[in-house]
């Protein structure tokens, strides 16, 4: 995929350039996120968060790599963060369920 986006115009905050960027990369970003995540809705959320991050951080893009590489790395990070968040929520839900059922004994145990 060619780098048809003028990065300077993008960094200047041009909305049309950002819209073009989203149109150019949205399918590949979504598919990247879907490759990590279980559900379409999760992939859609991660893809949206990716483009929000790109919009807010493009001024800091150092152009040491291709724009597409930078965008896909953000997408991977957002997908991995979604997985981590989901695991934390699941672990906390199990903790609360065990506590509710009286199986949680961590506070009642004494050291030594």
- Quickly count the domains: 1
* Total number of strands: 0
Order of helices and strands: HHHH
Report how far the terminal alpha carbons are from each other.
Answer: 63 Å
Here the CATH topology equals: Rna Polymerase Sigma Factor, Chain: A
What is the average of the pLDDT values?
A: 85
Instruction: Kindly provide the radius of gyration, computed on alpha-carbon positions and rounded to a whole number of angstroms.
Output: 20 Å
Look at the structure and give the CATH class.
Mainly Alpha
Structural class: mainly alpha
As a percent range, the share of helical residues equals over 70%
Number of helices: 4
CATH superfamily: RNA polymerase sigma factor, region 2, helix turn helix motif
Overview features:
mainly alpha, Rna Polymerase Sigma Factor, Chain: A, 0% strand, disordered C terminus
Structure report:
The chain has one domain: RNA polymerase sigma factor, region 2, helix turn helix motif (Rna Polymerase Sigma Factor, Chain: A, Orthogonal Bundle), CATH 1.10.1740.10. It contains four helices and no strands. The longest helix is centred in the last third of the chain and has 34 residues. It is elongated, with a radius of gyration of 20 Å. The C terminus is likely disordered.
Condensed summary:
The protein has about 110 residues and is mostly helical. It contains 4 helices and no strands. The protein has a single domain (about 5-100), classed as Rna Polymerase Sigma Factor, Chain: A (Orthogonal Bundle), CATH 1.10.1740.10.
């Amino acid at each position: 995929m060619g780098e048809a986006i003028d990065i300077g115009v993008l960094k200047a905050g041009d909305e049309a350039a950002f819209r073009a960027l989203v149109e150019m990369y949205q399918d590949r970003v979504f598919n990247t996120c879907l490759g990590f995540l279980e559900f379409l809705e999760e992939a859609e959320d991660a893809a949206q968060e990716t483009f929000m991050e790109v919009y807010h951080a493009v001024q800091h893009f150092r152009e040491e790599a291709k724009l597409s590489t930078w965008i896909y790395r953000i997408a991977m990070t957002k997908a991995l963060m979604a997985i981590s968040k989901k695991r934390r929520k699941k672990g906390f839900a199990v903790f609360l369920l065990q506590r509710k059922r009286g199986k949680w004994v961590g506070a009642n145990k004494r050291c030594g």
